[in-house]
Amino acid sequence: MFLAQLHLTFYPRNCQSRESEETHGFSFLNPRVLLTGTLREVRELNHVAEHGTANRNRKLAQHRELATAALEQYCLAGAELTLLSDADNTVFRVDVPGAESFNRHPYLGKVCGRRFVLRVSTGHAAATKSELIWLAALLRDTDLTVPEPVPTSDGSLVATANASPADGASVVLLRWVEGMSLDSALDAELMVKVGRYMAELHNHSESFVPPSGFQRPRWDRNRLFGADSVLHMPDAGRYFSRDELKLFEAAAERVSRTMKRLGESREVFGLIHADLHNRSYLFHGDQVGAIDFSDCGWGYYLYDIAITLSELKSREDYPALQAAFLQGYREVRPLSESHEGLINTFMVARRMDLVNNILSWEDPFLLPWVPRFLEKSIEVLNRYLGN
User: Fold this and answer.
1) CB hemisphere CA count around 268 (13 angstroms)
2) Could you give the CA distance from residue 280 to residue 182 in angstroms, rounded to a whole number?
3) What's the Cα-to-Cα distance from 185 to each of 77, 116, 321, rounded to whole Å?
4) Which terminus of the chain faces fewer neighbouring Cβ atoms within 10 Å, N or C?
5) How far apart are CA 100 and CA 46, in angstroms?
């Protein structure tokens, strides 16, 4: 269910096939592939529809200018930039020519022929730096495959970005993660590996002690049901009837009770990826890795699990995929039957957060699938509440 129920054919420019391209999880959808519904892809579609081509091109030009200027700070001036994504962040692949014409990077040494990912963000630089601090800790403390932050020539994790009118932007460089994202080829054997991976991630989170100044968002009751949620939007009646809004209130109350009962001890609450769908975990050989940690923050481990599983729920083999994922997770980290029974509650929480996000757009109905998605959301809430 959930966003996997959205059926919208998307024809972006410069499409690259997920099946033929070694992906980094940021590449555009293959032409004529139906939108399976990750939050980041929905944001990208909204960006095109809401702001139009002119604004999009203006933003891309500004961010490409920022990226080009930032390459100098990484001793990579002259490397080739290829756009991968321009949703909430603008992401480029960086290919360094094989010729010996590049200066040695003070931390990487020779970079000829290497590949990286460069991301231009408009979020708070302290939060971006904190994301990279966690990635560095994962690389130091575990064997998990995650993007490795690359410092600038002066040792900074975040590059200064003053090359264009895009004020407040920051730039980061990450090592390229080899691997492929899978759709129809994703099977139970692979989902066991994804489950193990997430459990290792949560184990690290449980013991991670953030340094002073560490800032990441919280995926909790305040974010899901607070002032910016559908429960408090003054124009929510434009999209839902009074009875339907009562469903959101009842579901929010039920989810909040569950979260309150769980508490926020290290065993249940910590840093989570918060967007680990099947285009954010990649397979390379017999290994699985994860990319795109830009939504990572403090939240319930069950919420992380629910996000991963909800993206697969429309598949006919979902029961087998879910069982395999939970099997792999339990091979590494305990998960009680009672907590497994709460996964659906956190899927509803994810659904409500996506509704919040959609309704925050200037005009959601610019996208033709939105009415059906909102209608489907009511069906999900009715089932959850037993109506």
Assistant:
1) 17
2) 10
3) 39, 26, 12
4) C
5) 42
Find tokens 């939108």 and name the residue: 35
Write out pLDDT tens, residues 57-112.
Answer: 888 898 999 999 999 999 898 899 999 988 778 999 999 887 666 667 776 776 66
C-alpha pair distances (Å), 272 with each of 87, 157, 199, 208, 222: 21, 21, 11, 12, 17
Alpha-carbon gap, residue 295 to 221, rounded angstroms = 17
CB count within 10 Å of CB 180 equals: 15
CA distance 385 to 318: 22
Q: Provide the β-strand partners of residue 113.
A: none
β-pairing, 170-175 vs 269-272, is: unpaired
- The sign of the CA dihedral 148, 152, 154, 159 is negative
Structure confidence by residue, pLDDT tens digits, 151-161: 998 899 999 76
For 179-228, the pLDDT digits (tens) are 999 988 999 999 999 999 999 999 999 999 999 999 999 999 999 998 88
**Cβ neighbourhood burial of 184 (10 Å; 0-12, 13-18, 19+):** exposed
Asked whether 250 and 385 are in contact (CB, 8 A), the reply is yes
Q: Is the pTM here over 0.85, yes or no?
A: no
The amino acid occupying position 118 is: L
Count CA atoms within 13 Å of residue 221 on its CB side: 15
For 6-20, 44-58, 61-75, 296-310, which range has the lowest pLDDT when averaged over its residues? 6-20
Beta strands in the chain (DSSP E): 80-86, 90-95, 115-121, 149-150, 170-175, 218-219, 269-272, 281-284, 287-290, 297-300
Three-state DSSP at 336 gives coil
- Concatenated DSSP letters of 235-293: TGGGTS-HHHHHHHHHHHHHHHHHHHHH---TTTEEEE-S---TTTEEEETTEEEE---
